Amino acid sequence: MELIRMKYPIAELDGDEMTRIVWKQIKEELLLPFVELKTEYYDLGLPNREATRDEVTIEAAEAIKRLSVGVKCATITPNAQRVEEYGLSNMWKSPNGTIRSILDGTVFRRPIIAPNIAPVVSCWKKPITIARHAFGDIYKASEFKADRKGYGELVFKDKEGNVVSAQRIAELDSGDVLMGQFNTEKSIRSFAHSCFRYAISEKEDLWFSSKDTISKIYDHRFKDIFEELYENVYKKEFERLGIRYRYMLIDSAAAGIMRSEGGMIWACKNYDGDVMSDLISAAFGSIAMMSSVLVSPDGKFEYEAAHGTITDLYYRYKAGETVSVNPTAMIFAWTGALAKRGELDEIPSLTAFAKALEQACIDTIASGTVTGDLSPLCKKEAVDTLSFLKAVRERVGRSLQT
Q1: What is the C-alpha separation between 300 and 297, in angstroms, rounded?
Q2: Residue 114 backbone phi and psi in degrees, to 5
Q3: How does DSSP assign 285-324, residue by residue?
Q4: Mean pLDDT of each 10-residue bin along the chain, 402 residues long
Q5: Helices in 326-384 by DSSP H: which ranges?
Q6: Helix, strand or coil, per DSSP, at residue 261
Q7: Which end of the chain offers a freer environment for a tag, N or C, measured as fewer CB atoms within 10 Å?
């Protein structure tokens, strides 16, 4: 079978632990037999981030900006235990956070649905996409722990250092904690534009939720910007397509989602989106069945799985055990990137291959060949990772020959 040729490369960002191992298996089993793969490779594994003092993460983000498309394996964000385990000189920042800041992107996470995996919420019939604002809030916050009695203030100074506003927040005692977080007008607007455009492209309703009744300035700013852009830019197109924009308080939105049949895009602030995307993925079956794409306002795309590095199974794998990792979300990261590359470079065969590979994954799961996370949900015996990949390869090979 003649290999499908690519014109331009994808930025490939390798990762850590079990996902790094499965990443290599996906390439060997499902991509290289069918595609003359072109990638610009960046090793974001923790040892190389240490060796480069995390400069490799910045280089990778710049490569995505330059090439327009990237695909990323899961990476470790080190805590104190990881610093000791890997002998790090620094508690390096989250690669995802760094890349999101550089691209100024919004993360869209969508469940991958198989017909034999029923959602926990019985009324859900369609995917629920989480649009996560991937900038600022507690992920860029400054924190302080008091070691004596005193008080905390929120102080704003102009460029000349003059105090414009000083608000006392709270009296503090030893052991009390304080946090200061921020967001920017530019990033909120980029987030809103991305959400409206994505809703139009998917022809789905858009919900946005925050807590403006409590956060009357911070969260209210998000609400005002979304409302302004909807009324002045997107309303006519939404009405033409027959889709709706709704603003709801976060608690009301959560309740509404639980009663809905799905089929909407739920736009959330950074922390809300982080939590709700995991909740949605688990309720649809597994976090390994959740695709994720970071979209920048200027049309750059980074595809990844929504889950982490699967540390527990990695330690078992290192101990010599055969493990059963669900590679579906990682496969969909590759297919998303290849489909986008094919679309941008006008290579329909590349896009068609990506779609065929996605369908082969879903059909393999529907046939009862499943990994350990899905086994209890469909009452089928689990297969190991490589067996699942080989089953997908056989299925996609047959589909490409017909």
Answers
A1: 7
A2: -115, 145
A3: T-GGGEEEEEE-TTS-EEEEESS---HHHHHHHHTT----
A4: 93 97 97 97 97 97 97 95 94 90 88 90 93 86 93 93 93 94 93 92 95 96 97 97 97 95 95 89 87 88 93 94 95 97 96 96 96 91 96 93 78
A5: 328-345, 348-366, 375-378
A6: coil
A7: C
- HEC string of 149-187 equals CEEEEEEEECCCCCEEEEEEEEEECCCCEEEECCCCHHH
Q: Which residues of 295-314 are buried (b: 16+ CB within 10 A; e: fewer)?
A: bbbeebbbbbbbbbbbeebb
pTM recorded for the entire structure:
0.86
E strands, 50-162, in order:
69-72, 106-111, 129-133, 142-145, 150-157
* CB under 8 A, 24+ apart: contacts of 61-66: 61/98, 61/99, 61/102, 61/103, 62/102, 63/11, 64/11, 64/99, 64/103, 64/300, 64/301, 64/302, 65/102, 65/103, 65/296, 65/300, 66/11
